[in-house]
Structure formats: structure tokens, C-alpha cells
Design a protein that fits this description.
Layout: E1 15-16, E2 19-20, E3 32-33, E4 50-55, E5 58-62, E6 68-73, E7 94-100, E8 111-132, E9 135-149, E10 163-175, E11 178-191, E12 195-205
Antiparallel strand pairs: 1-2, 3-4, 4-7, 5-6, 6-8, 7-8, 8-9, 9-10, 10-11, 11-12
Length: about 210
Amino acid sequence: MMRRLGTFLIATACVAGLVMACTDGPTETPTVQSPAFDFTNNPDNGNPRIIRGETHWMSCWTGDKSELRACHSTRPHAGGNEPDCGLQEEGDPLSFQDLIFDPDDPFSDWIHRIRTGEVFITVRDMNQPGDCLGRALVAEGWGKFHYVDNDENGVGEGEKHANAYVLRGHGVLATPDGNVMYNGHYKGVMSNTQGNRDVSVKVDIH
């Protein structure tokens, strides 16, 4: 999950229960750095430990108690070749803020990352065939997305802390029978002793 990817400003998040995969659409594009980006309605005053900007995003996960799979994206599925679900053109990027603990050597120390913004959410039934990436579309629509990672680079050799990360999405989505409320989250941890593991993976519509 976004571990040590060679540059801390490029990442992909496609989560499928215990298996990480990116089969639902394009990867995230390189982040556009913007030191003046107003993440919290306050200027960063040139603080070298703070980086703010915007980035496109897609993250998908399948609930651990259902076969429903939710994708949260600012871009069309399959690079724009999926006309039966999801965005048909690019949406607005998410905003992000990185707090770098060692601005002179960001890869050797912790980076706390937050991403937040509006995404287009699709929910599919992985047990039913259909026209949305080969599965039945259950619901779709705009919603909110929030992601927090307490160590974006992951746990390096010799580090004893646990890296925890949480991705959340929620919104009112449309179905053929009316609107439903969607709530979903992916919670995971990484450590040198236990590796990467799921804590809780939820996709819930009601």
C-alpha cells in the first residue's frame, strides 16, 4: 500500500482485501507541487516540512464481509474505456498535505500524509456478471474521500514502529431503485515483524 515507490509524490492505491492490485483503472499521476495550496485555509509560511498540492486518485477495495467492491476515483475507469459505469471524463483532483519530519532527507524519515476531496464512487457486486468492468453495478455517484497515513514511506529496516493508514469514503449513491447511503473504509497496518495486514475492510450500502 503506497510503500517505498521511488518518489514520495507518486502513488497508487488499489486495495482488494488481502491482495493489493490495480485492475480497476489507471494509476495516480505525478503530483503537482503547489507550495501556496490552501489546504487548511492557512498559509504554510514557507515551512520546509509542509508540502501541499493536488493529485488524481483511484482506490478500490472489496469488503471483508461481502462481495461488494467500491472504487473511489477522480478519473474514468480503464483509462476512459468503460462507458457503463464511473466517470466519463476527468474530475477535480484531491488535495494533499505532507508533513515531512526531515526535509533534507525525506526518504529516510517519516512523512505524514493526508488526502481529501470529492471522488466518484462505484460499487459492484463481484458475484454477479455485468457491464461495469465485467461485474454488476450496484450503485454509483459522487461522495467524499479522506485518506490518512502516518508513515507514507512505510516501515524501513530497523524501524520498530507500526505504520497505520486509513482510507474512507462516503456519499449518497444512485441505484436503479433509488438512492442509498454508502460508507466504506480500508484500515491497514505495516510492521517489520508482521508485514502488511488488513485491520478492517468495509463496503456498506443501505
